[in-house]
Amino acid sequence: MGAYSASYGGPSTLSLYSYFSLSGLGLLGLYMLLTGSGEQFNVGEFLLSISPHQWSLLGIALCVGLSVGGAAWGIFVTGASLVGAGVHAPRIVTKNLISIIFCEVVAIYGLIMAIVFTSKLSPVMDATITSPEMYYKGFALFWAGLTTGLCNLVCGVSVGITGSSAALADAQDGQLFVKVLVIEIFGSIIGLFGLIVGLLVSGKVV
Known about the structure:
Radius of gyration: 22 Å
Number of helices: 7
Structural class: mainly alpha
Largest sheet: none
Number of strands: 0
Order of helices and strands: HHHHHHH
Shape: flat
Distance between the termini: 43 Å
């Protein structure tokens, strides 16, 4: 569903929600600014009011959730095309399972990075949990997890759409499979980029 509904030509529900949300936040900010209470809208205070371990766990959860979501999306797109095209050309089913494997690898990337991030967490029982070092660890793991998860989400969708095209092309002409598979391999590398960036961001966390 895009910005406009295909059936009625009007704005979609998602775009309306986004519009009203942004408008509400804008009006709230303007009200606070005009009434002299704009200093209450303090982003830095909000970030520091949350436990560093909470930021770390949120990043780990986003890493796994977005990665699995991208893998599921890719498998859904590829699997639907593979099953449909396999009815008319059963020969394509076996070799096109590699597209399903590529999508599943995206979820494995997320799980591996979540294990790496979790190994960097340690229990803190005193006031040092609010130290600058702990906040650095929390924010680093949060952004590393978010970056890895988003890259894997895009990777899963890319591999799924390309794998769907590979199955349909292979059903028409078997010689096209290898050519489309090369494009699919390049799409799967996006997940590796996210994995590398996640390792770089979290590399100095101890």
